């Protein structure tokens, strides 16, 4: 992400200076945006970059514990430089979050530079899976960098300290994310196809029951139930692969256009990669778990598939939390400038106006083999849900208030009611999960299903105020939970921060392997490939 950030947000001069260094591994960069207290809400970042006109420098500073950079991959032990996102302050005025190239470690001996504190954030879920990545913590104590290390393609600070914005749209800042998200979609297809390949092959080898007259037992892949679980995953693996390829094309196309200062397709690329990243990674995790559940008898899957699952868990969070990305895609809440409201309203109206499904066609079983018809059904469903969502949200002064009121309304009337509500959530969520089957048997009408869903959402609201009390009542000790994030006293940040320093990786500033691997890379003049 270091390289795409400079490519997207750096001026030509900055690109010429920094990109060759990064390509030749003379510097190693990371992308330092997230902070201990601020993730999805990028506008809430606290790190400051204050311009000092006397020296023509920016002073990078972490004013609070929650402003510590937290999570960046490659930061903990390996990186020498970072693109750091910080609030730009000139002449006492806050201009919001901007990117800065900051050197973190000496290129001579790899020690952190004065004013910089860096470490690894510690052990992550799943031994061996994502732990090979040194996700890091970083704090600045009034660290000075030259003015020309602010990424200035979109906005600039002059020698006199004046803040200026060029006519290049601010959306460019998000170009880095477009790149990485399309890569995640490609990775999702790879992870799923890997698991499906193992499961399918093994299902063909594995035989259970059905032996006649002493003959071989039936291959489990021949059971219809096994097929109904396996083949949809196989189809998904292909679908993810194709959509990943399409996104790669989209990104290349957008990049070429950006180089020619054509920003017209950036909003669509942002919306597509944000939505598809969420829509591929989350179902993927569920499907990887499904694969695990129905081939659980085989040891090989425990070794390969579950590892696959663990490796992929973080993809739901990095590069934008999936839920938040979906909300952005649907509601256009952030970044407002990128996914323009009128674009989506146009899309929705267009779908609503053009969806006239022919009832005769719908009645024929074989018509459901026509992709066009299935697509129409999906579009009609999406349009209906969007209109209903828009109607619900229009009851509130702003959409976010609408969403939070739907989920957070306070109502509490004693333990019995709480347990009844939990019981209701249990059976209504099962009904919701399988509502397709209910509709197909005509046991439920769409109106019934919508009413049941309304009830389910109302029950969430009812339970929400007592949710913490309900989990406290399990009476688990902190020792039993073994999780800083789940501490009873909620004292998460200071304890998380302290714990990072107890990680064995932080016993020395210079990581094992620096002299053997990193230093030779940094010091050797590697030639760049000609292609
Ligand atoms: C493995 C890994 C690698 C990472 N690498 C990097 C990196 O290289 N550089 C970097 O800068 N960062 C990195 N990150 C950080 C990552 O970008 C953030 O974790 C991500 O942006 C989410 O932020 P958060 O973890 O603070 O979650 P939060 O934003 O605090 O979200 C917590 C929960 O609240 C929900 N939530 C939040 N806001 C809303 C809302 N408006 N509506 C509804 N629900 C909401 C979310 O869905 C989520 O369930 C990495 C993270 C991981 C896990």
Describe this structure in words.
The structure is a single chain. The protein has about 525 residues and is of the alpha+beta class. It is built from 18 helices and eleven strands. Strands 1, 2, 3, 5, 6 and 9 form a six-stranded mixed beta sheet that branches. A hairpin with a 2-residue loop joins strand 5 (about 80-90) and strand 6. It is globular, with a radius of gyration of 26 Å. It binds flavin-adenine dinucleotide. Flavin-adenine dinucleotide binds near residues 31, 40, 135 and 327. Flavin-adenine dinucleotide binds near residues 33, 39, 72 and 324.
Mean pLDDT: 78
- Say which molecules are bound, naming each kind only once: flavin-adenine dinucleotide
| CATH structural fold name of the largest domain | Butyryl-CoA Dehydrogenase, subunit A, domain 2
Order of helices and strands: HHEEEEEEEEEEEHHHHHHHHHHHHHHHH
- What would you give as the CATH superfamily of the largest domain? Butyryl-CoA Dehydrogenase, subunit A, domain 2
Quick one: biggest sheet? 6 strands, mixed
Q: Helix- and strand-based class?
A: alpha+beta
Q: Return residue spans where pLDDT drops below 50 for at least 5 consecutive residues.
A: 295-306, 332-362, 403-408
Overall CATH class of the largest domain: Mainly Beta
Distance between the termini: 21 Å
Looking at the overall shape, the CATH architecture of the largest domain is: Beta Barrel
In total, how many domains does the architecture comprise? 4
Helical content (DSSP H or I, runs of 4+): 40-55%
Q: What's the assembly state of these chains?
A: single chain
Overall 3D geometry?
globular
| Number of DSSP helical runs | 18
| Strand elements, count | 11
How much of the sequence lies in strands comes to: 5-15%
Radius of gyration: 26 Å
């Amino acid at each position: 992400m270091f390289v795409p950030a400079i490519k997207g947000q750096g001026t030509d001069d900055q690109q010429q200076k920094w990109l060759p260094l990064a390509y030749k591994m003379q510097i190693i960069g990371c992308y330092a945006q997230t902070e201990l207290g601020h993730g999805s809400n990028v506008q809430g970042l606290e790190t400051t970059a204050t311009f000092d006109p006397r020296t023509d420098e920016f002073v990078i500073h972490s004013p609070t514990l929650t402003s510590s950079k937290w999570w960046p991959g490659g930061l903990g032990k390996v990186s020498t430089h970072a693109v750091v996102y910080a609030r730009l302050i000139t002449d006492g005025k806050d201009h919001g979050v901007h990117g800065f190239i900051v050197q973190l470690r000496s290129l001579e001996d790899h020690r952190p530079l004065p004013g910089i504190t860096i470490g690894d954030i510690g052990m992550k879920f799943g031994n061996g899976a994502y732990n090979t990545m040194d996700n890091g913590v970083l704090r600045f104590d009034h660290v000075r960098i030259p003015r020309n290390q602010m990424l200035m393609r979109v906005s600039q600070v002059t020698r006199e300290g004046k803040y200026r914005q060029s006519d290049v749209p601010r959306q460019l800042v998000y170009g880095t994310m477009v790149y990485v998200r399309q890569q995640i979609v490609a990775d999702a297809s790879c992870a799923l196809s890997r698991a499906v390949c193992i499961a399918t092959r093994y299902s063909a080898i594995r035989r259970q029951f059905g032996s006649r007259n002493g003959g071989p037992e039936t291959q489990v892949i021949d059971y219809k139930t096994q097929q109904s679980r396996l083949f949809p995953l196989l189809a998904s693996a292909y679908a993810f692969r194709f959509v990943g390829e399409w996104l790669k094309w989209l990104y290349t196309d957008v990049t070429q256009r950006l180089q020619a200062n054509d920003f017209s397709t950036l909003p669509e690329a942002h919306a597509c990669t944000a939505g598809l990243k969420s829509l591929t990674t989350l179902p993927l995790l569920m499907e990887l778990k499904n694969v695990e559940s129905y081939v659980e008898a085989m040891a090989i899957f425990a070794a390969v598939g579950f590892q696959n699952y663990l490796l992929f868990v973080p993809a739901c969070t990095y590069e934008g939390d999936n839920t938040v990305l979906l909300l952005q895609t649907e509601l256009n809440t952030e970044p407002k400038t990128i996914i323009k409201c009128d674009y989506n309203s146009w899309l929705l109206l267009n779908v609503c106006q053009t969806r006239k499904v022919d009832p005769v066609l719908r009645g024929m079983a074989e018509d459901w083999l026509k992709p066009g018809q299935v697509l129409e059904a999906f579009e009609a469903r999406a349009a209906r849900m969007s209109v209903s969502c828009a109607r619900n949200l229009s009851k509130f002064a702003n959409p976010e208030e609408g969403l939070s009121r739907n989920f957070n309304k306070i109502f509490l009337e004693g333990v019995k009611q709480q347990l009844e509500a939990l019981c209701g959530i249990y059976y209504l969520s099962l009904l919701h999960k399988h509502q397709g089957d209910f509709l197909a048997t005509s046991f439920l009408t769409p109106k019934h299903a919508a009413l049941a869903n309304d009830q389910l959402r109302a029950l969430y609201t009812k339970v929400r105020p007592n949710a913490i009390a309900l989990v406290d009542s399990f009476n688990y000790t902190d020792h039993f939970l073994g999780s800083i994030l789940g501490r009873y006293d909620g004292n998460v940040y200071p304890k998380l921060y302290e714990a990072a320093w107890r990680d064995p990786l932080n016993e020395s500033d210079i990581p094992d392997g620096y002299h053997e691997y990193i230093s030779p890379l940094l010091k050797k003049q590697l030639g760049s490939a000609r292609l």
